[in-house]
Design a protein that fits this description.
The protein is α/β, with parallel strands linked by helices. The protein contains 13 helices and 15 strands. The strands form 3 sheets. The chain has an 8-stranded parallel β-sheet. Helix 1 crosses helix 2 and helix 9 runs parallel beside helix 10. The longest helix has 28 residues. It is elongated, with a radius of gyration of 23 Å. It starts with 16 loop residues before the first strand and ends with a helix.
Length: about 375
């Protein structure tokens, strides 16, 4: 189960590594998952509360909008109260970037071409360098420079990559290399093509995403197709799934993508059948409740929940905990791929949650013991 099979191996693009606060991005670091707050940044209490919910969901990095001086001032109160690095989202005014760096932001999301003159870019870079702050060059298909649109006729991969590399040159000329790049578009084809071309053109870490993807269901599908193609081909060092949904959903979907491709493991991966007339218990409702009850588990585990014996035993051999429906309301539980005990209908979810929590606690205790021994 743990062996690497050639057909399952994803060879990641080799990129240089930067740091967003204490979080490494690029190189051999794990692919990070991030989201963005949707509270008013000036509402400090609400913003801190939302960031903390994102931390619980597993966010590695959180972005906060900084459109005005009041928002950059609020960062001074927000940053000390949270544990994840904060990215300040800056669009036009270079002073907001400087203020955000001074307020403790770990990264500035900017479009250097919108910041203004070279002198202003130089001031932003100096603030970033002085305050150990990274930068993300954020190119968007919907806001390309007029000159590029006139030359290319429309947003296209070539225009987006040229924009990104032009902006990168601004920072390179200031001898600043602590930056990552994104080339997002709402069109999946455009985004994927732009990222593929950019990945070949430079070795900077890439922040990947399909921007303005849509609601929870449609946005998840669109993002999974686009980001799945990129991640499967080894492209992407940090990811944001843009959804018109609660920010925590972006984190959950992002981790599901990475888990599916074996790129990152966090929480319980529930493998379940779609249900059919052969099911010996209510698979759909059981899985729905089970996933809700297991959302607090961060330890990587796999659980199979299969309605009948056609595929149940086979799936169970490849999971940490398996559950297969059986006749007369009596079902089979597997531990470590082997039959362990039987279970009646009425306690399925409670029983499986207990087994998962017990297994997770054992794994974490063993991990802590190993780390303690290594530290001695």
């Amino acid at each position: 189960m743990s062996a690497v099979r050639p057909y399952r191996e994803v060879l990641r693009r080799k990129s240089r590594q930067i740091h967003v606060g204490s979080v490494p991005v690029g190189g051999d670091a794990p692919i990070t998952v991030q989201s963005m707050t949707n509270t008013l940044t000036t509402d400090v209490a609400a913003t801190i509360a939302q960031i903390r919910r994102l931390e619980v969901a597993g966010a590695d990095i959180v972005r906060v909008s900084v459109p005005d001086p009041e928002s950059s001032a609020a960062l001074k109160e927000i940053v000390p109260e949270v544990t994840v690095p904060i990215v300040a989202d800056i669009h036009f005014h270079y002073k907001r970037a400087i203020e955000a760096a001074e307020a403790g932001a770990a990264c500035l999301r900017i479009n250097p071409g919108n910041i203004g003159s070279r002198d202003r870019v130089r001031e932003v870079v100096k603030a970033a360098r002085d305050h150990n702050c990274a930068i993300r060059i954020g190119v968007n298909g919907g806001s390309l420079e007029r000159e590029l649109l006139e030359r290319y006729g429309e947003p296209c991969p070539e225009a987006m990559v040229e924009s990104a590399l032009n902006h990168a040159k601004y920072l390179e000329d200031e001898d600043f290399f602590e930056f990552k790049i994104s080339v997002k578009a709402s069109d999946v084809f455009l985004s994927v093509a732009a990222y593929q071309a950019l990945a070949e053109a430079c070795d900077y870490p890439l922040h990947i995403g399909i921007t303005e993807a849509g609601g929870l269901r449609s946005g998840t599908v669109k993002s999974s197709i686009g980001l799945g193609m990129l991640l499967w081909s080894g492209i992407g060092d940090t990811v944001r799934v843009s959804l018109s949904a609660e920010p925590e959903e972006e984190i959950r979907v992002g981790f599901e993508m990475l888990k599916t491709l074996g790129l990152r493991h966090r929480g319980v991966n529930v493998i379940s059948c779609p249900s059919c007339a052969r099911q010996q218990f209510d698979v759909i409702e059981t899985v729905k409740v089970l996933e809700q009850r297991l959302a607090h588990i961060s330890t990587p585990l796999t659980v199979s929940v299969i309605g009948c014996v056609v595929n149940g035993p086979g799936e169970a051999t490849m999971t940490d905990i398996g559950f297969t429906g059986g006749g007369k309301g009596t079902h089979q539980v597997y531990i470590g791929g082997l039959p362990n005990h039987r279970l009646k209908d009425e306690s399925i979810v409670d029983h499986l949650v207990g087994l998962v929590e017990e297994k997770a606690a054992a794994i974490e205790a063993e991990k802590a013991s190993s780390e303690a021994e290594a530290a001695e």
